[in-house]
Write a structure and sequence with these properties.
globular, Rossmann fold, 12 helices, six-stranded mixed β-sheet, 40% helix, alpha/beta
Length: 374
């Protein structure tokens, strides 16, 4: 009996060791990829991270990619340290949201020299060996600023709420918008604040501006994030829908719902998360950019030709082009819908520009909960 037990135990142990070896071999066969995130204190970053994770979990990539996520916060030195550690841990590719376009250049060059593929998404890295995936941020600032100027007839007092300082995204958008405003001497910027791409921060900063400039003194708003909040604050101040100040801003779902005609019937809409015909232009850095960067990085690791810059189309929505998605299916989005039901997307700060024909692997479930398409 003891001999039989020993043999059985040895067999069981052998099976475990073989299974472990199989798992280790499987992991070794995958590309070790890191996602390096900087600032995460807003809805966009969480959504973009969901889409990266969903891309890694899609059937086309899950047997190829071993993904690890690390967050440095808005600290370039910490992001540099983490990227160095990723290289030492055997990274084959690093997908990065850079806190600065230049601060990471040396560590990125070192990674490239060791054969690591580095892809930046949304914000850019200027080191020549890096790959970049983003919209034209200058265009985003310019188009939205010009819309606001035209909406105001070339004159009026405006408020600016910018993004995360130091990032290429914020720097380029803000500079392009101010260049447009500077061409119109009757446009006056009477308030400006850093909004960190956060609805909550936008509310705090706009409240400070309103302490010295009331709504009667403001004719329009240019906000990288915060148009949804601005409309909500005007509601709280008793400003009727047909008197609300036009806003050029982010592609949050709450903002898109507010842009729909006031008589649009939508289940789950209430309070300020409702159609009100809010005069707006809504644009976005699409959150799928990180997922696309991962997909392109794997292509590069497999020996395919990948451009150093993948420029994404700028998703722009106006009151004339906002279109409600009944269910949020892939076919609906492909047909042009760009605002989702509050019963599906309960967070009004969630970004709605998630569709791209380049990323059929990731859709609504990816953006919401990190699950890929099947």
């Amino acid at each position: 009996m003891r001999l039989s037990s020993s043999i059985a135990g040895a067999a069981a142990l052998g099976a475990v060791l073989l299974a472990s070896a199989g798992i280790s071999a499987q992991a070794a066969d995958k590309f070790k990829v890191f996602l390096s995130m900087s600032y995460i204190g807003n809805d966009w970053q969480a959504e973009a991270a969901n889409m990266v994770k969903a891309m890694a979990d899609h059937a086309s990539l899950r047997d190829k990619v071993d993904l690890t996520v690390q967050v440095a916060g808005p600290n370039a030195q910490r992001q540099i340290q983490q990227i160095n550690a990723m290289v030492q841990q055997g990274a084959k590719a690093i997908i990065v949201y850079p806190i600065s376009p230049t601060a990471l250049n040396q560590v990125v060059k070192n990674a490239c020299d060791k054969g690591v593929v580095v892809f930046a998404y949304d914000a850019e890295i200027t080191e020549p060996c890096a790959y970049n995936t983003h919209i034209d941020q200058d265009e985003a600032g310019r188009v939205t600023a010009q819309w606001l100027v035209d909406k105001l007839g070339g004159k009026g007092n405006i408020v600016l709420i910018t993004g995360v300082p130091g990032t290429s995204v914020d720097t380029q958008r803000t500079a392009a918008a101010k260049a447009v405003f500077a061409k119109h001497p009757d446009i006056h910027v009477i308030g400006e604040a850093v909004g960190m791409w956060s609805q909550a921060v936008a509310r705090t900063e706009l409240s400070k501006i309103l302490a010295t400039h009331n709504w009667n003194e403001i004719d329009g708003l240019w906000m990288q994030v915060g148009c949804y909040t601005a409309a909500s604050m005007q509601d709280e101040a008793g400003i009727p829908d047909n008197k609300k100040k036009p806003c050029a801003g982010e592609g949050s779902n709450g903002h898109r719902i507010q842009m729909l005609p006031a008589d649009t019937k939508i289940d789950g809409s209430s309070g300020t998360y409702r159609p009100m015909g809010y005069p707006s232009i809504s644009y976005a850095s699409p959150p799928y950019s990180g997922g696309l960067a991962l997909k392109l990085a794997v292509d590069k690791l497999e020996g395919k030709d990948v451009p150093k810059l993948t420029k994404l189309p700028l998703p722009v929505v106006t009151n004339e082009t906002v279109k409600f998605c009944q269910e949020g299916t892939w076919d609906e989005m492909k047909a042009g819908c760009n605002a989702f039901s509050p019963t599906i997307v309960t967070n009004p700060g969630w970004f709605a520009s998630i569709f791209s024909e380049q990323t059929p692997e990731i859709g609504l479930s990816a953006a919401l909960v990190g699950q890929p398409e099947h």
